[in-house]
Amino acid sequence: MTKSLKITSILAIAVLVVGFFYFNQPVSNVESAGYIPSHIQSATTTTVGPDTIVTIFDDQVSATCNSRVISTTDSAIMISFGDVSGFGSTTVSATAGHWQPASTTVAYDSALYGCGLYSAYGYSSTTLTVSSF
Hints:
Elements: H1 3-23, E1 30-31, E2 37-38, E3 42-48, E4 54-57, E5 67-71, E6 77-81, E7 98-100, E8 105-109, H2 110-113, E9 118-122, E10 126-132
Antiparallel strand pairs: 1-2, 3-10, 4-9, 5-8, 5-10, 6-7, 6-9
């Protein structure tokens, strides 16, 4: 075996070993768009409907708010993200808010949607599962 063939073989084996360890690293944390490791903080269910506006998350400005997950069942909902003073009405209703279809689960990342007050309006009475990470 020539010297250059030995060097090439050793380099090839080294690349394979490094590649094996690089691609087989365990995944231990879920990260938000802000790249902050997270774990579940709370999980609850709540009922919303057309008669009342329900607060589904209170203001949370701690470092533990990375993502909020909202799952709907058989009815679509409208969501309001916080109370923005000075910019008109932020009251969520059938025609104001951000629409989330029925039978869906959406993760609202804190880097994009914040950790403020979330309120919901249901077109009909429905149960939401809400989790904070």
